[in-house]
């Protein structure tokens, strides 16, 4: 599903190395926790999967496609395969929960009939069927994050990238979001969870990849743990 081959990313005339000789393979249907301190390179690695950031050297392959060979016109199709969930939700404050999810379909040219069918289904999946007409300001942090996940699922992506999705949440809401990501993974979607929350990682109990100073220093297959 995902492969990094000798990927290096440098900035400022190669004075700063964000990623250093990354070799990584993530298989279809895996749930991977990507851990490490702030500035370790987690977000840079994830941005490469959507071609928001390009490697200085090496190859990034997603779903069998070398992203270096991907034309600019094909990038939107790549990004429909990948759902993004962020720490700060990135919801539209002037739109209701229904409208936030529907907007992602509208910009893709989906018709009103399909929107009317798909959006309620997604809101139900994330436990927000009764919040369809609520604005983000009327929702709790956990509800807003679940709404963000619903939006990320709208194109039925093969991959979900969750970048610190529980960073602004309390413990109870963090576990609600985690359980939802588990559910999505069980349906076959590949999940990459970037976090520095040791308790969340250890609760997930799946593969753990540790990045420090742009390099992979540990790759624990199976029931990995966040080791500091």
TrEMBL record:
GO BP: cell division
GO molecular function terms noted in the UniProt entry: ATP binding; ATP hydrolysis activity; transmembrane transporter activity
Domain called ABC transporter: residue spans: 2-228
Pfam families: ABC_tran (PF00005)
Location in or out of the cell: Cell membrane
Main location: membrane
SUPFAM superfamilies: P-loop containing nucleoside triphosphate hydrolases (SSF52540)
NAD keyword on record: no
Gene3D superfamilies in alphabetical order: P-loop containing nucleotide triphosphate hydrolases
GO CC terms of this entry: plasma membrane
Protein topology in the membrane: Peripheral membrane protein
Protein's UniProt keywords contain Cytoplasm: no
Top-level taxon in the UniProt lineage: Bacteria
Subunit structure: Homodimer. Forms a membrane-associated complex with FtsX.
Annotated function: Part of the ABC transporter FtsEX involved in cellular division.
Listed NCBIfam families: FtsE
Family classification: Belongs to the ABC transporter superfamily.
Protein name per UniProt: Cell division ATP-binding protein FtsE
Organism: Candidatus Yanofskybacteria bacterium CG10_big_fil_rev_8_21_14_0_10_46_23
